Amino acid sequence: MDSRVMLIGGVVADRTSAIVAVTGVGGVYLLSSLCSVVWESPVVGGTERSESAAASAATD
Question: Could you give the C-alpha distances from 57 to 35, 43, 44, 60, in angstroms and in order?
């Protein structure tokens, strides 16, 4: 984990509670992963290529 995230999580945990800090860090990771999927999903591109390759192999 990035040391800056751990530092921010520690400050939040000191001022509130550990549950709030863990929830906040988890929310940041969830939001960043959702943004990554919305921006460009590597899984969709790979699936489309494998389906088209399978279709062309089946017709050969």
Answer: 35, 21, 20, 5
